[in-house]
Amino acid sequence: MLSLDHFLDLAERPLGSWPGALVVAAIAVAFAVGLHRVGARILTRIARPYPLMSVVLRYIDTPALVLLIILGIGFMIFEAPDTLPFIGVLRDVETVALIGALTFLAARSAGAVGEAIVQAHPLDTDDNLNARRIHTQARVLARSVMVVIVIIGFGAALMAFPSVRQIGASLLASAGVAGLVAGIAARPVLGNLIAGLQIALSQPIRLDDVVVVQGEWGRVEEITGTYVSIRIWDQRRLIVPLQWFIENPFTNWTRNSSQIIGTVFLYVDYRMPIAPLREELARILAHAPEWDGRVQVLQVTDATDRAMQLRVLVSSFDSALNWDLRCRVREGLVNFVQAAYPQYLPRARADLSTDRHVDFAPPLEPATTEPAATANTANTANTANTPADPVASRGEPTGPDPRAHSAASTAPTPAGKP
């Protein structure tokens, strides 16, 4: 009867050469793949009634397969004799690969837990404030944990090489400046990592929040370990580092609630009655599906030299609905004024009256001995040709009509007179 030691002795005999080692490695890989398939089917059936476990199994399926294959190959490498060529280098590579596979599995597991929590709280509800809060915490914390796992795995992989470990120890022991330089160089990464933890805990922003950042209006589309992606209303993307939200002020329209109040401004003539406009506003809102029934206000908020300013306040469940509601209200009130009170639309006023009194100095008497009629005629001609005369500039006569004077001088002389 074969004992365990005898079986191991038989298994180690082919490892004395590379052909035999490759055959053993192929058998180990096949066994690992078969074990993975059988185990995956069993665990999938067990986890079918549990959505959280099903999501985790789906996420760790590939990392588990990679880990099993690396373990199978590692069995061949570590059991091979030291006399096999290049076996020392392969053992170092196997160690690094095993650390990488474990890091991959741990990071995917953290991401799987976060994704399972996210799927358990959908966002397609009327009041999704609590769901968005949970989404933000789960995604940011999961990605922060993944970053920490990757850093630990990378450090463990470096420590697997004795030469690298000695170099690192000597640098830390002999030159403390190296650590300071490395800290300064890694400041953006560490700053964003800490900022991500702060955002996950304090939550100044959440997924699907409506924010205004540097004059751009949009929704928080994604929060990664280093930046936030904001989907602007015109389908552009604004990428902002995580640390920026901790150090700079910004506007969050949905911090405590997704409900919002919108404003519509109208300008009408002073004579426009306000009561019919309030009735029309009530009629428009009664047929508007975007209105949530909370706020309905129409007030005169300003009076300029040209028109009255009317401000309308309306409320909705979220900003997207409020934008559509404001457009609906604005169009409805403008159509109402155009149809019922077109004479009260804003007008430009100007005074075009010509009934004004103009004072100007009379012309000086000329120093001449000409007859009076000739002098008057000369004065009239001079006055009419003067550009500064405001009456002459309008084409109005200022004295006796020259045509009448000419007609009088050419009339026939009555009988008995010279």
From TrEMBL:
Its main location: membrane. Residues 189-255 form the Mechanosensitive ion channel MscS domain. Residues 358-418 are annotated as: Disordered. The chain crosses the membrane at residues 15-35, 56-78, 98-119, 140-161. One of its GO terms (molecular function) is mechanosensitive monoatomic ion channel activity. Pfam families: MS_channel_2nd (PF00924). Residues 366-388, 406-418 have a biased composition (Low complexity). SUPFAM superfamilies: Sm-like ribonucleoproteins. It is found in: Membrane. GO terms for cellular component: membrane. Keywords: Membrane, Transmembrane, Transmembrane helix. It comes from the Bacteria. This is Mechanosensitive ion channel protein MscS.
